[in-house]
Amino acid sequence: MFVDDFHNGRSVGNASGIDFAQAGSGGVALFSRSKESRITYPYKDGFPREGYLEMDVLVDRAYSYSNFKLNDNIPCALLFTTDIQGGDVTWPGSAWLRACKDGTITFHIAGEKHEPGHKDKYKLEAKRTEFRFGAWARIGIGFGSAGSYIVLNGKIVAANPAHTQELGGGGTQQRSLGQPTIGEATSSFWRNNQHDGGFEGTVARVWVGGTQLKKPTEAPARKPTEAQVQNRQGHTKTACNPEDICKAFDLKIGFSAKPQAPTEVSGSFMGFPVEGVTANTTNSLSYDITPANLSLLTAKSYKIVLNARIELEEHSSARMGWLPLPIVVETKRIDKTVEIHVKKANGFREKGQVPLAELRAYQAGLGVTKTIKSAKPSVSIVSITEDP
Question: pLDDT tens for residues 85-101?
Answer without folding.
Answer: 555 577 888 899 999 99
